[in-house]
Design brief:
The chain has 19 helices and 17 strands. The protein has 580 residues and is of the alpha/beta class. The strands form 5 sheets. A 5-stranded mixed sheet has the order 2-1-5-3-4, with helices on both faces. A 4-stranded parallel sheet has the order 11-10-13-14, with helices on both faces. The protein has a 4-stranded mixed sheet with strand order 12-17-16-15. The longest helix is centred in the middle third of the chain and has 22 residues.
Amino acid sequence: MVKVTINGREVEVEENSTILQAAKKAGIDIPTLCFLKDINEMGDCRMCLVEVEGMRGFATSCIQKVKDGMVIKTNTPKVIEARRMVLDLILSNHDRECLTCTRNGTCELQKLAREFYIDDIRYKGERNQFEIDDKSPSIVRDFNKCVLCRRCVSTCKKVQGIGAIDCTERGFASKISTFEDKSLNDVNCTFCGQCIEACPVGALKEKDSTNEVWRALRDEDKFVVVQTAPAVRVALGEEFGMEIGTNVAGKMVTALKRLGFDKVFDTNTGADFTIVEEGTEFIDRLSNGGTLPMITSCSPGWVRYLELNYPELIPNLSTCKSPHQMFGAIVKSYFAKNFGVDPSKIYTVSVMPCVAKKFEAKREDMAGSGYPDVDAVITTRELARMIKQAHIDFVNLEDSEFEDPMGEATGAAAIFGTTGGVMEAALRTVQDKLTGKSFDNLDFEEVRGEKGIKRATLDIGGKEVKVVVASGLKNAGIIMEEIKSGKADYQFVEIMACPGGCVMGGGQPIRTSKERAEIDIRAKRANALYTIDEKSTIRKSHENPILKKIYKEYLGEPGGHEAHKLLHTSYVARPKYILD
């Protein structure tokens, strides 16, 4: 431990701490912009400058290590003027169309401009102008709003292990770009959206689909159905100032009904279908010499990653569609037939925590009923925008229930939204199906928790099953290399593209760098899902009554011909770069 003095206050901190960490311990706030804890600690933006006695110039507090006896001043007139100059220079080359920016009100640069009372730009002159890249089905890149903080670059490289973007050129010409300056659509981007979550401004955003949905809602000839993923209900409230991890399912259903949707259904029902189909597929592979390990296929960012980087392992992927795609197929077949709705007039909207779902909905082989399973995907953030546009007082809404017959789901479906949840839900069904018995041990603690990779050997119905759960694509790459090299002997593998699973998806509410550093956001959202599971009357997917009814009346046996037609899909090897 060392002792330092900050603004006249002595504080004791660990020897290798940065000035920024020491200041936080002393309860002193230092502004940052490029800093992202454990991910981007480079000191590029210089917003965190401080004075240190005996040191020439200013110290960059996010990277400068403390020394015993160091005397630091964080708010002198010189420091404030230096930070303001840095901010002026950033703003001088920034597209300042704040009123029409998606991040208006949640932009970290805008917040700094308010705090420093920037009422004019002192440094006026030439500005860079870039074309907007909106070719991707999931992500829009507007470099005119970029502040060169490199948070997106570090996230893509260090967290996801992709490296689809990097800083190119030098000086005034510097920019964040891709291989040969191509669109994100034409390089090795997986559309996971973690770059959006990392971006402090509006340089990266999801491809907006709200206008399409509004058009459908206005069209009296359309029957508009909406479904919501499990992770959405424990994050949506944050967009309205509610505590992180608050379960707002009831208010969300009410809001969706007020927006004018004809039916409000629960994607959790689709998750139960996925578990039954995936569990059946796994048992068949395990018992009949199929390709092992079987790898889950619910995360479209992960599926695209495998198609780009490990096409030789495509046979290991489960052929099951993700829950919202299964659900869409059932809505346009079983629901349409049994409730007298013309499937050509049904317009299905999925509310997802994930921007890669926009890409998934447009994949080939996602029209099992003869119509697209899903017509539009909006993120948690987009739903919040629609609710605000409709001037709905979300916080004070009464609770409503999802509608029958597609609103009944199990606790197993709820935990789909967190890393390890798909594995745990599947194992609950697999152990019952393998033995023909009903087991009471439903909590597989071995696959829970925040670790990026979790390995376990489990006794499932008298069979030893080796499983591994990985979240984040960098961790996925580690597991794929193990499988590819023959070093792994897993039977079942769960991969989620986003670190922590869907609760931390690229379409979830964006939290500031300070919040990400100080709050365990993943744990709060995940714990809310586990609470839903624990309180559920039914906690095994195969015991869902509506599933039993639909299989009996329409689909036949799980894994059968009709189920395969509607609920399963195929994959393709993709080139990493589309060359001209």
